[in-house]
């Protein structure tokens, strides 16, 4: 008899599992259809809202009528107390729509208003421009304003898709990892498929690794699909092209492995298949809502933000956005990767305790 | 049997669960190339005994040797030379029969042609079907095909005919006999005494975790008759099952 090969057994399992996943409607729906639908909706919805964020350049005079009037219009939110570097970042992403700098002219009672728009948010810049023009011709203000200087800085365009896609990608990886793993191991255990496997010379590690390879493979194909659709149909930004995609896929792999840990735990805790969806939702829904999938965490109330910052998906989303839009390398997001790894260690420590084979 | 070489030896097997003793001191031998039946009511410890021999369950005490390998020291070696059909086991979801056989070939490290395996159990027409879509008899035959992948010396069949109609049952008997004739030892559990009588070379009766009788079906019947036992109703030359088969035909429907 030839020597028994664990690798052959693992590959056979991975192949079987992959075939099974590809034929499972729920896997395909959660991994591809849901994220794509959200991308479509947000891709066509665009930015929305007419609040304009205007940064006040550090060093600007604060006690002048111009800024006071801007504040009163109600549609302009003034952003203060940030450094120049921080403002540059915000301008680049269009999180701040323009910068304003007001100075008293030398030897004059009048003010000089210096406005910088950003190409990342041309439409809002346009609104601000007309607001400023109105002010300029306002009777009460006119005598005190000498001039308005306007400039536009050109930056890479930060589109809605650049925010939405990484979030949806993260969510897709989360649901594939959690739901898929939990369902498969619970049903393999309950239908005695695993028991039948144990009657063959296969090792337990081969079963877990084979299953893992299949799920990671499936998740990466899904991720690639989402990235490519986003890039070619909605102009998703990939700063360094293929290199960026490769980095995103590496992050995706790390993400799925961590999230699969939740799945192993759930498969051990759940007593029946009908218990899998509620428990899985307890894990996925808060992350779906709070991890910056749809909205930037900064938009949440301050008491909620610490919760967001405790969740692993937050860091995956964050790392994905930095890699995709800001063109960072994996080393630049080492902090996010480290948090994910810490989560991974914690989750698998629990999984080893609660996972059941029979 | 002229050559009575034991291929399985079970000695003083005991299995205790928390609060009850499932198997208490079983000893028996299975000879090479026979069909050996484990008979007894539900909960008597038949399945537990099988699963311990199959290395799927730990024993509390006792000794088991399978073809020279000890279940304690060489479980991996035993797994390579046995084929196991579990009571009510399912198969990997969403795969067709060919793909399932490929999976098992990988798990056993065996080189097989899935189609030839299906031909052995007469399921070649169902190659692309899912396991769930098979009839009861087809499911059992497929399960038996998966036990043959590693060309085992022994196969274990746990209640393979439960729930099958008379035709499917007879069809499975033929298959099991064929497998034995090809040189494989078969260990089988069943609730049907007519089946044990027709199929098994030797049977062991298990009751409350102990063997209460072990012999060829003929000897066991003779012993009972010699003790003065008589059936209440005189036996006719045919029974109702013969009528059923005669009326509905021998060939087996899917």
TrEMBL record, chain A:
Principal subcellular localization: membrane
GO cellular component: ATP-binding cassette (ABC) transporter complex
Keywords in alphabetical order: Cell membrane, Membrane, Transmembrane, Transmembrane helix, Transport
Alphabetized PROSITE patterns for the sequence: ABC_TM2
Coiled coil: none
GO molecular function terms listed in the Swiss-Prot or TrEMBL record: ABC-type transporter activity
UniProt entry tagged with the keyword Repeat: no
Annotated ABC transmembrane type-2 domain residues: 125-358
Span of the signal peptide: none
Subcellular location: Cell membrane; Membrane
Membrane-spanning intervals of the chain: 27-45, 169-188, 213-236, 248-270, 282-304, 335-355
Topology class, membrane: Multi-pass membrane protein
Family of the protein in this entry: Belongs to the ABC-2 integral membrane protein family.
Entry protein name: Transport permease protein
Source species of the chain: Pedobacter frigidisoli
Source lineage: Bacteria, Pseudomonadati, Bacteroidota, Sphingobacteriia, Sphingobacteriales
UniProtKB/TrEMBL annotation, chain B:
Record-linked InterPro entries: AAA+_ATPase, ABC_transporter-like_ATP-bd, ABC_transporter-like_CS, ABC_transporter_ATP-binding, P-loop_NTPase
Tagged with keyword Coiled coil: no
Subcellular location: Cell membrane
UniProt keyword Coiled coil present: no
One GO CC term on file: plasma membrane
GO molecular function: ATP binding; ATP hydrolysis activity
Origin superkingdom: Bacteria
Domain ABC transporter: from-to ranges: 8-233
Keyword vocabulary terms for this entry: ATP-binding, Cell membrane, Membrane, Nodulation, Nucleotide-binding, Translocase, Transport
Homology family: Belongs to the ABC transporter superfamily.
PANTHER family (UniProt xref): ABC TRANSPORTER ATP-BINDING PROTEIN, ABC TRANSPORTER ATP-BINDING PROTEIN NATA
Name of the protein in question: ABC transporter ATP-binding protein
